[in-house]
Amino acid sequence: MKRMLATALAMTALACSAAPSGAEELKPVRLPPPRTEGGKPLMQALRLRATSRAFAPDPIPLQTVADLLWAAWGINRAGEGKRTAPSARNWQEMDLLLVDAKGAWRYDAAGNSLEPLVAGDLRALTGAQDFVKDAPLTLVFVADPARMKGAEAASIEAYAYADAAFISQNLSLFCASEGLATGVRAMVDRPALAKALGLPGGRIIVFAQSVGHPKR
Ligand SMILES: Cc1cc2nc3c(=O)[nH]c(=O)nc-3n(C[C@H](O)[C@H](O)[C@H](O)COP(=O)(O)O)c2cc1C
User: What is the mean pLDDT of the segment spanning 165-183?
Assistant: First the structure.
């Protein structure tokens, strides 16, 4: 019951009446606990960090999905609800949406789950370049200015872009550590993607970042 309520709230928060129908075909995904130990030493990960634009189609195991979401934007201090990346004034205005061949989900860091948004393969809409459709998953960084209490209107985008960049770098270093390919991009048709995702007006699509195995 609690989970159903949480799902309903997440969907109300992100979907609007223009959202394509079909989210009901997707089920919430309970993620396994993230593995927060191990990985390559930081200096080695920094040596390996690079942008990739070629992805193998192989799926990413659910455990790795849980790990990468935690590394990117998970909660690392449960008592305070604070995250692996900083955010200006701790607004935590960023939602990470996961887009794969089945649909789009919102990462719920506190619940360690993926909450369904839209069914269907939207990967091709997550960027203007051809390779974006091949990556098994893409994270879309969406800022909600309503959470940025007290921010001057002129500063909202700058803060959102800065906060997204920290999350993106966490994800890039995780991928470097795991031998995964990744690439952040700003070249996104934001109105088209926002429409397909059913985002309410005002949300800011900042970046998209694909993750996959390197193309052999
Ligand atoms: C804010 C930002 C936006 C970017 N947008 C794109 C993009 O739309 N498409 C793309 O292929 N690469 C994009 N990149 C990746 C850069 O082209 C890449 O980081 C740069 O060429 C340096 O390569 P490296 O990351 O391998 O060091 C972006 C990088 C940043 C930081």
Answer: 98
| Dmax (CA) of the chain | 48
pLDDT tens digits for range 61-90? 999 999 999 999 999 999 999 999 999 999
3-state secondary structure of 208: strand
Q: From 170, 169, 168, select the one nearest 143 (Cα to Cα).
A: 168
CA of 40 to the centre of ligand 1 (A): 23
Nearest CA to ligand 1 atom 19: 51
Tell me: the pLDDT tens digits for 19-39?
Answer: 445 566 899 999 999 999 999
Q: Are 141 and 55 in contact (CB under 8 A)?
A: no
- pTM exceeds 0.85: yes
CA gap 116, 9 in Å, rounded: 11
Read out DSSP for 96-138?
EEEE-SSEEEEEETTTTEEEEEEES--GGGG-SSGGGGTSSEE
Q: Are 164 and 206 in contact (CB under 8 A)?
A: yes
- Cα–Cα distance, 211 to 52 (Å, whole number): 9
CA 29 / ligand 1 centre spacing (Å)? 30
**Span from the CA of 184 to the centroid of ligand 1 (angstroms):** 6
d(Cα 51, Cα 26) in Å, to the nearest integer?
31
Q: Whose CA is nearest to atom 6 of ligand 1?
A: 185
